Amino acid sequence: MEKEKILILTDDYAEDLELLYPYYRMIEAGYDVVMASDAGGRGLKGKNGVPYKSDVSWEDIDAAEFVGLLIPGGWAPDKLRRYDKVKAIVKEINDAGKPIGIICHAGWVTISAGIMKGRKATSTPAIKDDMENAGCTWVNEEVVVDGNLVSSRAPMDLPAYMKAFIKALEE
Amino acid sequence: MEKEKILILTDDYAEDLELLYPYYRMIEAGYDVVMASDAGGRGLKGKNGVPYKSDVSWEDIDAAEFVGLLIPGGWAPDKLRRYDKVKAIVKEINDAGKPIGIICHAGWVTISAGIMKGRKATSTPAIKDDMENAGCTWVNEEVVVDGNLVSSRAPMDLPAYMKAFIKALEE
Amino acid sequence: MEKEKILILTDDYAEDLELLYPYYRMIEAGYDVVMASDAGGRGLKGKNGVPYKSDVSWEDIDAAEFVGLLIPGGWAPDKLRRYDKVKAIVKEINDAGKPIGIICHAGWVTISAGIMKGRKATSTPAIKDDMENAGCTWVNEEVVVDGNLVSSRAPMDLPAYMKAFIKALEE
Amino acid sequence: MEKEKILILTDDYAEDLELLYPYYRMIEAGYDVVMASDAGGRGLKGKNGVPYKSDVSWEDIDAAEFVGLLIPGGWAPDKLRRYDKVKAIVKEINDAGKPIGIICHAGWVTISAGIMKGRKATSTPAIKDDMENAGCTWVNEEVVVDGNLVSSRAPMDLPAYMKAFIKALEE
Amino acid sequence: MEKEKILILTDDYAEDLELLYPYYRMIEAGYDVVMASDAGGRGLKGKNGVPYKSDVSWEDIDAAEFVGLLIPGGWAPDKLRRYDKVKAIVKEINDAGKPIGIICHAGWVTISAGIMKGRKATSTPAIKDDMENAGCTWVNEEVVVDGNLVSSRAPMDLPAYMKAFIKALEE
Amino acid sequence: MEKEKILILTDDYAEDLELLYPYYRMIEAGYDVVMASDAGGRGLKGKNGVPYKSDVSWEDIDAAEFVGLLIPGGWAPDKLRRYDKVKAIVKEINDAGKPIGIICHAGWVTISAGIMKGRKATSTPAIKDDMENAGCTWVNEEVVVDGNLVSSRAPMDLPAYMKAFIKALEE
Q: A single GO BP annotation from the record (chains A, B, C, D, E, F) (predicted)?
C-alpha cells in the first residue's frame, strides 16, 4: 500500500528545527514527505546553518496529491509568500479542508494566501498584528487547532504542534 | 546654534545600507543623528555583517526632542515591533506630524504602531499584504511621500529616499 | 503524576538533528528530558550551527533518576568520551539494563565506557572498525536493537531510531 | 541630457561603507556611477560582508569618459595597486585634473600610481608613513582638499568627504 | 639529482597546522611533497579555516614512489579511513618499512588500515581507547618512535614530531 | 643551560602560516619563542581563522633579552606599525645587529620603524612601492639576506625563509 503524502513548502533560512523536526516526524508517522522549494534538488540552508535539499520545485507539484501541508517559520515565509504558485497551493489545500500546519512566522504565507479571515490561530508574537489585520483571532497558546488549521508559536512548541497535526491528519 | 536631532530606531540584523546610508547622510545634511536600540552603547551587527553601536536605549529617549525618525529594513523591524516603547515613540512622532522614513521591511514597525490606516506607501513587495491589511494603499514606486510619511522599497532606492526625506524635513 | 526522565549527554558540535530531533521527540512522547554537558546552562552550538543550552552539568547528575539515555553523533562524542563521569553514567545506566540510544559517531562514547563487548550494533560506517575492535558485531541497518542498546547510522535513520527507542522504553 | 559619469575602482574586501556610501551618494547627486573591478559583473564582498557586484572590468574602461574617480579603503587597495591598468587609469584621471577621492587605505593606490609627490593629504594613520615616504605632506583632518585630490581618514568622515568631493566636481 | 618524495594523505577539515607545518617542513628538509586527496587539485579547507589544494587524487598514486607518509589530525582522518585506496596505500607503505607519521586523530586511519596491532604509539587522548582496542600499546609522550611508525599527540608536539620523522627518514 | 629567546610580534589577522610555521620551527630549532601582542594572554585569530594566544604584552618586553625577531604577514602588520612600542622594539633589535625576519606584508612594520633605508629586501609585490619609497632596494626572490635582515614574499617561501633565518641566528 502506498503511503499518504505530506507537502512541506520551504526556502532558504527556514528555522532549522521548525523545518526538520516535522520533516522527520511525519516520516516516523508513516507518511511520504515531499519538500518543495523554488527549484527541485536545490541545496538550501536553515537560518542557523543546517543544510538540506528540496526534493522538487513547487512548480511541479499537484496539490491534490497531498493529504496535508506544513510550513516552517524563520525567514523562509518572507520569501515564500511572494510566489503565486505557493499561494495557489496553500489555497487549494485549504479549500480541500486538508490539515495545514503553520509555526512561528509561517502565518505570513497563509495571510498572503488569503485564508486567515475568521480563523483562530497563534504564531510568534512578532506577527500578531499582521495576523489580526488579516482577520484572524490571535491567541497565545502552544498549539491552536481551528478546523484544518494547526498553528504553534516557536520551536519549544514542536512536540504539541506535531501531536495536534498528526491527530488532525488521522481524523 | 545647536543642530536639529534625527532619531534612528534599530536592532540586530538591520539591512546594513538601509541603516547606515541614512545615518551618514543625515549627518552630512547637518543633523545630529541618534541611533537607539534596546540598550545604549550595545554592539549590533547588520544583516550582512557590518558592526555598529547604538548611542542610547530607546527607553531613555524623549521623542519630543527629535525632528524626524528613520527606521531601516532587514530583520530588525521584526524585533522592533515587539516593543511597546518603540511603538509609542513612532506614534508620538507621527502624531506631531514630523517626517518618518520607512524602507523595505520597516513598514512592519509602523503597522504595529497603528499609523498606517488610510496612508499611501510602498515597501518591499514581501510585506505588501501586511501593509494593505493594515489599511494602507500600497504602490510600487521608488519613493512615496504621503504627508509626513516617506517610504521606499530597497537599497537601490536609497538616493531617491534620502532626497525625499531631506525635502520633507525642510518643509 | 511525575514524568519519567530521559538523559541526553552532549557537548559542542553534536550533529544538530541527531541531538534535537530526539530531544523534542522524547518530550512529545511524554518524558521529562534533561540535557547535560560539562557545565550547566552553558550555551552550546551544533556542528551545523544550531544553538542550544544544556540544562545541567553531568557532574550533578544521579544516573539512577533516569529511565533511558540518548547520545547524539557529530563531533560531540569525541569530546564526551574523555570524561570519567560521562563513562561512569553510561556504564551505570547500562548495568541497570535501561535503554541507551546511540546514533552515528555516538558509539565512541559507549566504546570508551566499555560496554560494547559482545553487543550487536550499527553506527556511521566511519567508526565501524572502532566498533568491531571494541568487540561488537557491526551490521549495516537503519536501526539495531540488542537488549537495551538501540543504535542507528545517520540523520536519515532518525524516524526508525526513535520508534525503536520509544518501544524499548515502553517494554 | 546624459548624466556625467563617476568611476569607482574596487575589489573584494573594500571597507563596506567607504565603498557604498559614496556609491549611493553620487547617484543621489545626479551622477551615473560605474563600479569597476578586475572582471565585469563579478560578485564581490566587502570587508564586513556586504555583497555587491561590479558593473564592468577596468580593462574595458576609457578613463576619458569619467568626470571623477573614487577609491574605497579596507583591503581592496592592497589588491588594486598591483594592476597596471588601475594605475594607468588613476594617472590619466589625475593628469586631466579631475577630482579623485581617496579614503582610509585608498592612498596605497595613488602612491603606486605615482601621483602623491608634493601633495597634501590625509588617510588612516596606519599608512601615514607610506604616504610621507611617497612625498606627500600628511595631515590629520577629516577631509583634505589639495587641487583635484580629496582625502579622508575613516567611515566617520564620510559626510565631510562627500561634501568636499561633490564641491570639487561642481567647480 | 631528483628529490625523494613524501606523501601526505588529507581531506577537508584536517587540523590546519598538523597538515601544513609538516608540509612546509618536509620541503625545507629537501623533499618533494605530494598532497593527495579524493580528487586532484581540489580546494580543501582546514578545520580552522586555512584553504589549501591537493596536488593529486590518491587514486592516481603509486605508493612505491614515496619514501615516507604523513597523515594529519583533525576531522580529516574520520573521512580518510573510509576509502579502500587510502587503506591500501597506508598498508603498502607500512609493509615496505617506510616511515609513517601520525599525529592527533590520524591514528584512526592506521587503525582502519590494520597496521596497529603490536605497535607502540601515542595520539590525542580522545582516541586512546580505539588505539588500544586495535591492539597497540598507548603511551602519553610528545613523540613515540616504534620502528617505522612515528606518532605525536597535538600541534604543540609538532617540533618533536618533525625532528623524529626526519630522523626516521634519514636512517 | 637556558635556551636563547626569539621574539614574535603579532596581532589579529596575521597570515596564519607565516605566523605559526616560524613559531613551531624556532621551537624545533631549539629556541624559546615568545609571542607578543598588545595584551598578554589575549586570544587572537589568524587571517584564515586559526586561533592562538599571545604569551605577553609587548609593553612588558625587554628587547635586549632576545637574539632575534620575527614578524608575520597578513593584516597584522597594518596594526603593528601604529604602536610606538613596536617600532621601538624593532629599532632596538636592529641597532643591536640581531636577525630580523620579515615576510609578505611585514615590511610595513620595518618601514614604520625607520630601518629600511639603504637595505636590500623582498616582500609581497603589493608593498613593493612602499618598500622602495622607504629607501630600500626591492628584489623578487624567495629569500633575501642583507646583513641582519632576512625577508621573504609569501607562504610558499617559508622553507627558504626559515633556513636563511636559522643560518643568520647561528652566525
A: proteolysis
